[in-house]
Amino acid sequence: MSKQLIPAQRRERIQEYLTLHKIAPSSELSSLLGVSEATVRRDLEWMENEGILYRTHGGAILSQHLQLEPEYTQRVQKQVEEKIAIGRLAASLINDGDIVFVNSGTTATQLIRQIRTNGNITVVTNNITAALEIGESNLELILVGGVFQPKSNSIAGRFAIDNIGKIYADKAFIGVDGITIKHGYTVPSNVEAEVIRLMITRTTGSIYVISDHTKWGIVSNFEVAGIDEIPTLITDEKLGQTAKDALTKRDIQILEPQMLVKG
Q1: Would you call 32 exposed, middle or buried from its count of C-beta atoms within 10 A (0-12, 13-18, 19+)?
Q2: 130 neighbors 157 (Cβ within 8 angstroms)
Q3: CATH 1.10.10.10 fits 2-62, yes or no
Q4: CA 107 to chain centre
């Protein structure tokens, strides 16, 4: 019966499958629709051109567009355990004497919370939440200054850009709101995007994206870097295999919390 479906019917079935599962391997769609994987690939290509989905290596993911910046109070309550684990792993990559850039966001806040404070480490950030929570600590934390952004509980704007432009960091840890192969790393705020782009430019060493698995397949309004421009993604173990395959095909290294070995 499924072999007699016309293209429009097949594509409707594919969209229904993606709405339910978020990720669709070509092999499963081929079996579901009773057609060859070559036919499935043609359908996926058509649907990608229509903006319905994004093709990945071996399948597709549902296209989701994040137009508005979520309120900080909403984001802080989501994927808490994953963000804590990502922050712990990211913090373990910071060495004594490092100067690091960290931008705003709830995952970035978890990173700053977990940086050990006896290693002469300097954090340069626009993250107000982290600054308020750091308390009495040997960690040197530099706020870049600027205009308060209430939705992200951060600071940005010309003052922030001017101050970041006077600093070179050893490492940068960048939180984003969206990750796709086609559109790269994106955020919903232009002023935050400007801060991140300059942090990337002013970093002399390693740059990491820190993001939980729910950001995969999301496209926000402002690109901060192409998918190939930041070679390492620190995420949680719930990132799907299809996503991992698509990223590793582009030579993106994926670090997950279970890879952290305790001494």
Answers
A1: middle
A2: no
A3: yes
A4: 10
